[in-house]
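Re-run with default settings, no changes from the original entry. Doing this only to confirm the output is reproducible before filing.
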Amino acid sequence: FGFPGSGGLCTLVLAFLAGMGWAGEKSAVEDIVAVGWDIFQPLLFGLIGAEISITSLRPETVGLCIATLSIGLAIRICVTFIMVCCAGFNLKEKIFISLAWIPKATVQAAIGSLALDAARHRGDQKLEDFGMDVLTVAFLAILITAPIGALIIGLTGPRMLQQVSKSDEEEPELNTGGGESKSCRL
């Protein structure tokens, strides 16, 4: 149809629409998709990694990418914290939610190569260089944020979140302690 690289984006949109449409019956679909994801996730990230040659990365591109990523993540953390301020979460939960949004990987892997695909389709070397820079930024975003985010979630989750027990859910009027409310919103 003349839209190179649109497969990843269409897949994301289709998954979102399917999730909305199958609201009640999605547990069976989730099981099937989970198996498919376990099979194809390594392929998705492997193909992105195969396109990037570590030795061909220019230091100025890497430095600019890390600076841009750091600024973007700082803004994302602040905006996320502000957005959940009026959502009824306690301070620890707000901080955890803000930090839990650090990992970036799936979208970058799915659409990171779109600019390079479009440039190759046009056959312009300058555009291919720009496309490779975009792919490099996506690659480094995955490489930097995914492990850091997983580490932050794994370390801060048990300390900042409290699990709601069945008695707290059924009888909220009995929880009249002066401390923070017990809740877990994941």
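The chain has eight helices and no strands. The helical segments are 6-21, 26-51, 59-83, 91-100, 106-111, 114-122, 125-160, 166-170.
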